[in-house]
Amino acid sequence: MSKSLVIVESPSKAKIINRYLGEDFVVKASVGHIRDLPVSSSSGRGKKTTAKDKKTNPLFDRMGIDPENNWQARYEIMPGKENVVSELKKLSKDADKVYLATDLDREGEAIAWHLREVLGGKKDRYLRVKYPEITKAAINKAFENPGTINMDLVNAQQTRRFLDRVVGFMVSPLLWTKVARGLSAGRVQSVAVELIVDREREIKAFIPKEYWTIDADTLTTHEAFLKLQLISKNGKKLEIADEKAANFIKDELKVNVFKVAKVEAKKGSLHAPAPFTTSTLQQSANQKLGFSVKRTMMVAQRLYENGLITYMRTDSVNLSAEAISAAREQIEKNFGKEYLPEKPNFYKSKESAQEAHEAIRPSHPELSAKDLPASVDRDGQRLYALIYARYLACQMAPQTYETTTISVEAGDYLLRTSGKTVLFEGFRAALPSSSKDSNLLPKVCVGEILKLKEIIPQQHFTQPPARFSEATLVKELEKDGIGRPSTYAAIISTIQDRGYVKIERGRFYAEKMGEIVTDRLRKSFKELMDLNFTASMEDNLDEIASGKADWIDSLNKFYGRFSKTLEEAKKPASEGGMPENKAIVTDLICPECGKYKMALHTGRTGTFLACQGYYDKTVSADKRCKKTLNLKEIDLNDFSKKDLSETDEAELMRKRKRCPICGSVMDAFFIDDSHKLYVCANSPACSGTVLEEGNFAAEQNQGPVIECDRCGAPMVLKDGRFGKYMACTNTECGNTRKILKSGEVAPPKEPAVDLPELECKTPGSHYVLRDGAAGLFLAAHNFPKVRETRPVLVKELKRFRDRISPKFYYLADGPEADENGNPAEVRFSRKVKKQYLMTESNGKPTGWTAFYNEKEEKWEINLPVVKKSTVKKKQTVQKSSKK
């Protein structure tokens, strides 16, 4: 009897499903898509050219779709998938049924359709199965009720693919002609870049304004401290513009009596957030774990494929009745009945929510993060813990609190302060807040006279709009209806790869080429760059997916308008076409010929100066001046700061030179040791430049100067292939140190310690002790040939104490094991940026940790939490020997 063939997308998923289905099924993975439109213009090489081929539009041939011939598509087996397809074809011939068990979104539906088309045979032997989670119950249910391929979903996916293909392949060549070679455009990505560019320009055009606030430190009659903030005078809100006005008010307040006028207490409640959708998971993971959107989706994919969470691409906040019941059971068990609302909490999904499956939740509600199998890596544990906490919290009672507001009169002035007391933590027991929930105020009575300690005027400046982080960009894209959560990771990755934007310190910065391309597309393709149009296209895709719209008709309507716009954009700028990327003429005379001025050019590879004589057509081409000058951008980031905050950036902007034409801030460049060039941040739209002469030789070595940890010579900031770094000025030393993402100079590293006594698992390899950015660890001596690493044990440091640096003696003197005899190993805490000790049992953390108290020179041990207690007991171990 022949076995049925089941095709899934990933090998890890195949292994789990194979266990659930048994011996009557063969489960294989397609490893994603098996065919797609041609990957490049070289696709189809080796084809014999016929007369018919010569008549076809070469652009349409490269695209693989013909929008002028009913959108006929040429799909090809993807490079590297030939063996996969060959094996699946062989297995499908011997199978009586083929179950297409790919993911349950549009992309998964399209993969199932491509598989059916490639494998061939009768269509009725192909069955489509969908499951929201990889559990035995869900898999069995799916295979008991198989369906067929939903062509509406397939067509929606094809429509998106074709639209993106047309825009990318037909607009990009225009950008090469008008702006610079190697550029590209995208239907959704270009709109995302536009959001970042517009925010960049808002920030650069922003002029900070000074304002002052005044606080008063007071004492109650019981000597309790109470800080007040000045609010109004004679019932009108106070706006203090400068120091003079602040000092005048300060002098008036000093002579007044501070009398409590009102004490108000109000009770309130905070309801639990809905369970995670794709976008809210991406935002939360970025804010709380520091994960990029791409990293979040990769980790979530692994958790899903290992049967730990439900499908991670969803717009829905719905939970099944079974999931709600299981959550309530876990809440009562772990927190108590008082944390359960009388009725389950239900949440409403957005109208545009696509597939009608569940929100993201644990597949096994009884499995908390600490119970995960050892095979789940650290990222998986952290993301799972976030999902698990949100899942439980969404079914818990609200947090209740009381806010107290104290109003104090001081003559004509009114001062105020507010405090908050949590009465019942509710869902916060499972999902703690990152900020302080309670802010207790001392008890005061109406009419009570407060004792004034100090009046504190403080200068402030208004802040520019905040830069987008990945979390806030996702939120903005979702709000504007641009793309779908499942596409956000690809969007963010693409706009960085194209060099249109960059991320520094977790915030988006628009690159100059991103601004230029945005301006050109906005001028010539207004509809394409319109947020409402992009959002309406997403709605149209939803209508196609639900069978309410015809996909070919939708494509034809778009292409009809788009092709006309494209023809207009191809015209010269003088006739209304897309403007060229014109150079900006500066006041610097060419140092080569001394006749022409130098002009600023912006290309894909950066900004440079070129002599205008190159374009003088009265001179023969071979005699024209070809002098160019590289520009070194002056980085205004302060590398002495751990993190460049929005306040710091506003301070830097106040110091920057302003454009004499439009008033925006100017970007600064070194031309050489005696010339500095300022260029309007809005260039080339604004041609403002300022040339400055002087002695800038010393200034070019900008950045921090630190002492070399090896030879004592100065280390200076350098630019390298992989970014900025510190380099020793002593050429014989050659020491370098990284600049971390936070802007800090990386701590010095100790030389590796060879430990031939410690053998690796790989025969012929042994460990060396290395000092990395995340502290001490053991790595194979022949790394990277043998990629074997592990934490070092305290007992191993004790054993080789005579070989290690004295700076690590405190680790060697730490406790060797916990109370159960589990060996202590050295780990690194990114949160506090310190090395600490921990133990594991059967590959799982025991909860035992130890941190070194440098002031008291002793180890503080945190014992595992017992039962419901949230307080960790501490004991100390006196250090055996000092450094």
Sum this structure up briefly.
The chain is of the alpha+beta class and 883 residues long. The protein has 21 helices and 38 strands. The chain has a six-stranded antiparallel beta barrel with strand order 9-10-14-13-12-15. Strands 34-35-36-37-38 form a five-stranded antiparallel beta sheet, with no helix packed on it.
* Beta-strand fraction estimate: 15-25%
Q: What fraction, in percent, of the residue positions are helical?
A: 25-40%
Using only C-alpha atoms, the radius of gyration works out to: 33 Å
> What is the first-to-last residue Cα distance?
74 Å
Shape designation: globular
How many β strands by DSSP?
Answer: 38
Could you say what the CATH topology of the largest domain is called?
A: Rossmann fold
CATH class of the largest domain: Alpha Beta
Known CATH architecture of the largest domain:
3-Layer(aba) Sandwich
Q: Strand order, main sheet: write it out.
A: 9-10-14-13-12-15
**Helical segment count:** 21
Query: What class do helices, strands and sheet pairing give?
Result: alpha+beta
Summarize the main sheet: 6 strands, antiparallel, barrel
- Poorly predicted runs are 41-54, 638-643, 867-883
Tell me the domain tally: 7
Mean pLDDT: 87
